[in-house]
Amino acid sequence: MKIASDALKFILEVSKSTAPREFAGMLEATDDVITDVVIVPGTESSEENAVMQLFMLPNIHTVGTVHSHPTKDTTPSTDDLELFDRKGQYHIIAGAPYDFSSWRCYNSKGETVRLEVIDYEFKEEKEKW
Ligand code: ZN
């Protein structure tokens, strides 16, 4: 699995601007590349637990979840692991200071998986517009 560098940049920027609150979103992929993040409504402005909001989402077609932690600890919590088990195969946790080395991706069992960061050209969308 891979992730577009623009999608990763977006995750890190939103995590940074939301901190110390958590933000949560769903990951969307095109083929084997994560290209989009759908932010869960409310997580940018409320103090409610971001992970709990992910639980309440219907199972829309996504490959997994993303959320931020307010500290540099990217270890999944018990709630996180339960979420990973239910909502897709790839789960990103971004920790402070939200740079290219302060995030991890986990599988549905909570094991670390490697995501390759690639420069992804959004060709189809550009042609469409
Ligand atoms: Zn968490």
Q: Can you offer a commentary on this structure?
A:
- Helices cover about 25% and strands about 30% of the residues.
- The chain has one domain: Cytidine Deaminase, domain 2, CATH 3.40.140.
- It has an 8-stranded mixed beta sheet with strand order 7-6-5-4-2-3-1-8.
- By secondary structure, the chain is of the alpha/beta class.
- Helix 3 links the parallel strand 4 and strand 5.
- The structure holds zinc ion (ZN).
Could you give a quick summary of the protein structure above?
With 129 residues, this protein is an alpha/beta fold. Helix content is 27%, strand content 28%.
Structural descriptors:
129 residues, alpha/beta, Cytidine Deaminase, domain 2, 8-stranded mixed β-sheet, 27% helix, globular, binds zinc ion
